[in-house]
Amino acid sequence: MRHIYDRVLEARQRLQGVIAHTPLSYAPVLSQLSVGEIYLKKENLQLTGAFKIRGAFNKIASLVESSKAESYKAGQIQGVIAASAGNHAQGVAYSARHFGIQSVIVMPEATPLLKVSATKALGAEVVLCGDNYDEAFERALQIAKERDLVFIHPFADELVIAGQGSIGLEIIEEKNDIDVVVVPIGGGGLLGGIGSVIKTLKPSVRVIGVVASGADAMKRSFVSGKIEKVESVRSIADGIAVRDVNADNFALLQQCVDEIVSVDDEEIANAILFLLEKQKLVVEGAGAASVASVLHKKFSFSQSDKIALLLSGGNIDITMLNVIIEKGLLKSNRKMKLEVVLVDKPGSLQGLTDILSKVGANIVQIEYDRTSVMLKYGDALVTMALETKGQEHKEQIRQSLKNYGYFFNEIN
């Protein structure tokens, strides 16, 4: 870990004047809800919208320094290539443009358009390939050989890890009495860099990693003490949806991490919604994972603990935002969806809506189906979405429908 820490100090010198020094801000509402003293490290406000620029710039700057030391011009580096779901892509593209170097980025085919467009706007050539990061990674390695490009790994590279570790320095410098640091995990480079700094400077600080439950190979490996594999990954937190565990990063996390927890997609969505409403922050799924771990009590801490949560990125796709908000509303009991069977006759629907009106449920969407082959003759199926005011209000709605003899199903 000390070696990584020394690399981090070097990285910070390279990053001076290039990256934004993002704030570590007290979060009063989250602190009150969680009964702890919570601070947010807002890397979603970084120049490219995420922390990844730190590691990418450090790596590419080092390549340029090496070429100059060998009396070459930076332009003689043929170019760089990376595989990324978006944030590393923008970091590499930005850094390559800074040094006048060609960049090629291979992205999974389902990468949000926002991230593809942003990467192209930074001058990169974008290649879409594969269903996930790991497939894009394999294609990037092939192109690197074919075109003599330097591959910039998003997390399994010491210089990239050192760049990300500069966040740990900033946290300790701004809040020297911090007790817990919570960091999202994809490939583990971010957590490895930050954890190495924290454990070198203040070994007593607890370092906690957070994975998405749909991409939890690193957690499984950490718990078992050996590398575990998963067949596939799936999560709205595309930035941390990494399938395979890198052996070197796993070994580093074993040294500097105290605990790894997981959060599911609904919990992540709830955290995104919370940050939008209560903190006025736009944060992507991976970036909200740390907040989700606190909101849903995934690890223990005391009321006096000072906890830093890393918001790793804010590059959320607008077309996905509606889906994520929907999940968050359902998870926080502010919306419910129902299927109700009615007798198909005049006044039946009005009777149902009158009951919902009495209990203060606002109908935001409704469909009336009388032709489904699944229905009995003379019945109709009403599907509706309701705005609700919490768990008690939802139970009141359920009870009212039962009291009036309605048969209904809740849709998740």
TrEMBL record:
GO terms for molecular function: L-serine ammonia-lyase activity; pyridoxal phosphate binding; threonine deaminase activity. The keyword Disulfide bond does not apply. One of its GO terms (biological process) is L-serine catabolic process. It is an enzyme of class 4 (lyase). Keywords: Lyase, Pyridoxal phosphate. Pfam families: PALP (PF00291). Its EC number is 4.3.1.19. It catalyses: L-serine = pyruvate + NH4(+). The keyword Cell cycle does not apply. InterPro entries: ACT_dom (IPR002912), ACT_ThrD-II-like (IPR044561), Ser/Thr_Dehydratase (IPR050147), Ser/Thr_deHydtase_PyrdxlP-BS (IPR000634), Thr_deHydtase_catblc (IPR005789), TrpB-like_PALP (IPR001926), TrpB-like_PALP_sf (IPR036052). Its cofactor is pyridoxal 5'-phosphate. It comes from the Bacteria. Residues 337-412 form the ACT domain. Belongs to the serine/threonine dehydratase family. NCBIfam families: ilvA_1Cterm. This is Threonine ammonia-lyase. It comes from Helicobacter cinaedi CCUG 18818 = ATCC BAA-847. The gene is cysK.
